[in-house]
Design brief:
By secondary structure, the chain is mainly alpha-helical. The chain has a domain of 90 residues: Alpha-Beta Plaits (2-Layer Sandwich), CATH 3.30.70. It has five helices and three strands.
């Protein structure tokens, strides 16, 4: 009986050792397959040309000639919307050496016409926003006009009974 138990224990130990070796082998094979897929995807992504907002390095790597325009406005987000609308590839670089900071917008030379149209729309939008009167000021002006209007005074004479 003791021999059977010992034999079964040895068999169980050998089987569990084989199981962990097999599992380790499978895990390593899956890991290596994942690494190969990841490398293949990375190579495919290199072929894709970025569009819209990108870094100056990415823009220069496209070898299409770069030009730039200077913006002093802090609200670059509005320009982003307009540039996306016109499909312009551009990069924004902040020049911190000057106070207040200036923003340089780099773009491809072939996008010059589209960028000109985008800048026209952007400047029109900023001028429109600057000329807008805040709501609080409008309400205050209306309240002053209402106060200056003549009020009706009602005098009722009460008759006694």
């Amino acid at each position: 009986m003791q021999e059977e138990v010992e034999s079964k224990m040895v068999t169980l130990s050998v089987n569990t050792t084989k199981l962990t070796a097999r599992t380790l082998k499978q895990a390593l094979e899956k890991f290596l397959a994942h690494q190969r897929n990841k490398a293949a995807q990375h190579n495919q992504n290199k072929d894709v040309i970025p569009h819209g907002k990108q870094t100056v390095k990415q823009l220069a790597a496209q070898n299409q000639g770069l030009t730039n325009i200077e913006i002093t406005d802090k609200n670059i987000k509005d320009f982003d919307r307009v540039a996306r609308k016109y499909g312009v590839d551009y990069a924004v670089k902040k020049d911190k050496t000057v106070s207040p900071p200036k923003y340089l917008v780099f773009f491809k030379a072939r996008d010059a016409d589209a960028l000109t149209a985008a800048f026209k729309e952007y400047t029109a939008n900023t001028i429109k926003k600057k000329n807008k009167e805040p709501i609080a000021v409008k309400i205050k002006n209306i309240a002053e006009k209402i106060k200056s209007l003549p009020t009706k005074i009602k005098n009722k004479e009460r008759g006694e009974r």
